[in-house]
Amino acid sequence: MPTRKRTLKPNAQQTEDDLARKYFHHELAVSRVSALSKVLIGLIIVVATFFFTKFYIYAKVEVITMVSASNNYSRFYYEVPCSKDYQEERKLFKDCVPKRCGRVVMDSVVTKQEARKLLRIVRNAMVLGGSNGGASILDLHTGAISKGNAFINIFKALESHPEPDQILTAEDFMIYKKVKDKIHSAVAAEFEVPKDKLYLTKPTFFSRLTTKPAKTIHDEYWHPHIDKETYGSFHYTSLLYLTEYMEDFRGGRFFFIDKDTNRTVEPVTGRLSFFTSGSENLHFVERLKEGARYAITVSFTCDPEKAIGDPRLK
Ligand SMILES: O=C(O)CCC(=O)C(=O)O
Ligand SMILES: [Fe+2]
Asked: Which of 129, 235, 260, 285 is the most exposed place for a label (fewest CB within 10 A)?
């Protein structure tokens, strides 16, 4: 029996092939379109996120000059609600951990003359050191001083110096101690802590900021930070300024970062600024635009185990 091959009519076969081809192309096109649209959607999301973030950052920040260089403040006080950062320690150091948190600026605790003497100390010391980047420190307690891309010990460097008295003297340490004691009293009184329950802690150091580009992480002073987190032992941070904003340098203002506002303190020679060190006082230093900015960070703790003594010439 002749077998009848079941064949489609040429036309029908063609139509089916065409359809299959068309379908295949359609599928391919659809998958190409959907891959392309995925890429496009991804791109749109990335661009939108970028602009939103930028817009949000810029839209958010209103800058308020909280403490201006052109005014004199015998006592400026700005209260902020305390963060939860102190909860664990409240029982341990009950007379000392802040009950009330805030920011204080006092222009009459340290005299201009004392500030100028302290400025001379750090300037002299920097003859032996100085960072390659924009931030140098001098810690009279440990002897650490920035040099190049690292630190050296100033007491060691003085041993081989022909005229160490030209750099650092016993009198310098007396001035440093006198000023540090006045700051200690002011912080204790303002935050109602018995002075003998509040201890000087480390690091307590001089700083010099310049416009030099950063060479190491130690030069990057402008990052927002919380002192209690960064330094561990701090409960109260104080800053004594040794040069003046817009006189000796441009940029270099101190910024407190609040929810939708930044509040600045403009440095003035002899200006004492202090605040509770928890996350209620997130802050940064504006990048310098010109000149050199000198300050001392004098830090206090409630933990007697973290206390440090007065520095002395070794
Ligand atoms: O120098 C200043 O104004 C602030 C320095 C600072 O934030 C710090 O030492 O932790
Ligand atoms: Fe700080």
From this structure: 260
Ligand 1 atom closest to Cα of residue 297:
9
User: Which of 208, 263, 271, 293 is labelled catalytic?
Assistant: 293
Asked if 181 and 95 count as a contact pair (C-beta separation under 8 A), the reply is no
CATH of domain 62-306: 2.60.120.620
Q: What is the dihedral of CA 242, 143, 203, 187, to 10 degrees?
A: -50
Residues ≥6 apart with Cβ < 8 Å to 109: 182, 183, 186, 272
Q: Of 206, 171, 208, 203, nearest to 312 (Cα)? A: 171
pLDDT for residue 313: 87
For residue 197, how far is its CA from the centre of ligand 1 (angstroms)? 24
Distance 238 CA to ligand 1 centre (A): 9
Give the model confidence (pLDDT) of 66-101 as tens digits: 999 999 999 999 999 999 999 999 999 999 999 999
Active-site residue 120, yes or no?
Answer: no
Report the pocket of ligand 1 as residue ranges, CB < 6 Å.
Answer: 207, 227, 239, 254, 283, 285, 295, 297
SS3 content of the chain, % helix, strand, coil (to 5): 40, 25, 35
Domain boundaries, the chain: 11-60, 62-306
Whole-number average pLDDT of the chain: 90
Given a cut of 90, whether residue 134 has pLDDT beyond it is yes
ipTM confidence score: 0.99
CA 261, 267, 273, 279 dihedral sign is positive
Q: Which residue minimizes the CA distance to atom 7 of ligand 1?
A: 284
DSSP 108: S
Residue pair 167/124 in contact by the 8 Å Cβ criterion: yes
E strand or H helix that includes residue 20? helix 10-60
